[in-house]
Each structure stands twice: as C-alpha cells, then as structure tokens.
Write a structure and sequence with these properties.
Distance between the termini: 38 Å
Bound molecules: S-adenosyl-L-homocysteine
Strand content: 25-35%
Strand order of the largest sheet: 5-4-3-6-7-8-9
Radius of gyration: 16 Å
C-alpha cells in the first residue's frame, strides 16, 4: 500500500482535490538531494530532517492540517514556515487548479531553507507562473503586503494565534496553525469575531521570531 492509500484508509485524507494534490506533488522532490534511500524515506509517515534543525512535516499531520484548512481553487493562501516547500506546492496545486488563478504566498525565516524550498517548488513551475511567491523572512506577524488572505497555514508552533494573522484574514477565512502541542483551526466569522477548535496530541518545531542566515 502506498503512503497516500494509507492516509486515505486511516481517514487523514478525504477530499478529492486534496488527494489529487498529494498524488501530483511528490514528497520525494522536497527532500535533500544527498539523502540516502530518498524514494523509500519519502514514503514513511514521519517528519524527516531537512537540515538547520528543521523537518519536512509528517504526512499524516500535513494531511490533517490541509483537510482542516479546506483550501479551494482561486484562493489566496499564506503559508508560514515553508521549509522544504512541500506544503506550498500542495496548496499551489489546489489554488491554481483548472486555471482558477489562486496564489500562495510563502514565508520562511531561515534563509538557506527559504532557498532550498524555493528551488523545490520551482520543480513544478509554480514560481515561474507566479502561482507561488517565496519570501525569506519572519512570518510571526503574517505578511501584510499581500493581505488579505482566504487561508493561512502555519507549520511552526507558537503560544497562541497572533492578532495580526486574524487581521490579515478575510471574513469567512480559515487559519490552521499549531498552538503549543495542539492544532488550532480558526474561522473568522465576522470583522471582529472568530471561532476556534483545537485538536490535541501533536508536536511541532517552534515558531521563532526574527530571521536567520544559515
Ligand atoms: N511546511 C514545511 C514545514 C517545515 S518545519 C514542510 O512541510 O517542509 C517549519 C518551518 O517553520 C521551519 O522551516 C522553520 O524555520 C519555519 N519557521 C519557524 N518560525 C518561523 C517564522 N517566525 N517565520 C517563518 N518561518 C518560520
């Protein structure tokens, strides 16, 4: 059984357009070039080191978060902590399906990883076609120049959901972000209101403020 079949059987992957993106965007393309047994490693349902004390997220966790995010064709999505670029490419595939014109703005604080992830995303032509925009920078206060967003996905864990992310979200928009050891789903229900659900039992690398060159 392939990893994707397992994620479907265990109920992590449900939605056809999300499953299609997982099939088309190969996780192996987001692993470091020199990693031994890359093809086999990509199929493991585990977080894998991409250097700089960071990981490409565990597939079941990415599937769970993307299903909660409910990304749709045509949307503008902010991906905070893009690391390997895998989540950015998955979201870019969904947002731009059938020429829908959606876009992903991706931000990564570690400069060398920002470069690595950008090169991985470029394998699918998303940067050239202006579907994905990769920014080396601190996303802990979102990214105001391209706001507002329909969706915000975050891959590193903070102590709460910053006000700036909610401000940069459209009404009706969704944020999925790790908060401590939970995954939080925030829906902006009105200009000044949100609803929040939390799901327990996850582990993430920390959300750190500021940028780093190496
Ligand atoms: N979506 C990525 C996850 C990488 S791990 C993937 O599947 O590969 C989380 C990433 O968040 C790390 O690369 C880390 O450097 C980054 N990160 C942590 N704090 C950040 C911040 N304040 N702004 C932007 N990126 C951040």
């Amino acid at each position: 059984m392939t990893l994707i079949e397992k994620l479907i059987n265990t109920g992590y992957l449900k939605t056809p357009r999300i499953i299609e993106a997982f099939e088309k965007i190969k996780r192996v393309d987001f692993l470091p070039d020199n990693l031994p047994y890359k093809d086999a490693v990509a199929e493991l349902d585990e977080a894998i080191s991409i250097g700089f004390a960071q990981t490409i997220s565990q597939p079941a966790v990415v599937a769970f978060m993307v299903e909660l995010l409910d990304p749709r064709p045509g949307q503008k999505i902010l991906d905070i902590g893009y690391g390997s670029g895998w989540t950015t490419a998955l979201l870019a595939r969904i947002a731009s399906a059938n020429g829908a014109g959606g876009k992903v703005v991706a931000i990564e604080r570690i400069k060398a990883l920002a470069e690595f992830g950008k090169n991985n995303i470029a394998k699918y032509g998303f940067t050239k076609k202006n579907i994905a925009k990769c920014i080396a920078g601190d996303g802990s206060a979102g990214f105001l120049p391209k706001a507002p967003y329909d969706r915000i996905l975050v891959s590193a864990s903070g102590s709460d959901i910053p006000e700036s992310w909610i401000e940069q979200l459209k009404v009706g928009g969704i944020i999925v972000a790790p908060v401590k050891n939970t995954i939080a789903k925030v829906v902006k229900t009105g200009p000044n209101s949100i609803s929040m659900q939390k799901f327990d039992g996850f582990a993430f690398v920390p959300l750190v403020q500021g940028t780093r060159n190496f």
